[in-house]
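Aim 2 progress update. The chain analyzed this quarter is reproduced below.
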Amino acid sequence: MAEDNQTDMELASIIVSRLLPKAEILKAWTGKEVVRIFKENKPDLILMDIQMPEMDGYDATQEIRKLDSQNRTRTPIIAINANAFKGEKERCLETGMDDQITKPIVSSMLQHILDKWLFMIEINRSEENDALPLNLSISTKKIIRSNK
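Predicted structure tokens:
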């Protein structure tokens, strides 16, 4: 199961780097790392794996939403979930996520989600006259292991 999550998220990283070659992709292995990276980097978009060690995607999303409310921002969080069961998307939305992609990751589906949410970010930025560079955060489970 962990290997499947790793493969799915590696594929997502490859697809994103091809679709958005200038995007900075920040990778996290655990839910706690996602929250830490969010605090340090304020990414424009988060692809949130639901199944992560230490803190799952639901709990990490709730922590990020608390930080968003303190900063009066709302970072789009897209759930990446293996469950396509009825009610799962609603659970993601109730937790504070903005959208959901089910595994396996398909390039056209990921492109649609990125187009949709990055377009919304650009609209909001143009309204605020904000020209910050684009960062993209992908939460993953063990994408990079330097010593294993």
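Strands lie at 24-28, 46-49, 77-81, 99-102, 135-139. The CA atoms of residues 83 and 137 lie 22 Å apart. These observations will guide the mutagenesis experiments scheduled for the next reporting period.
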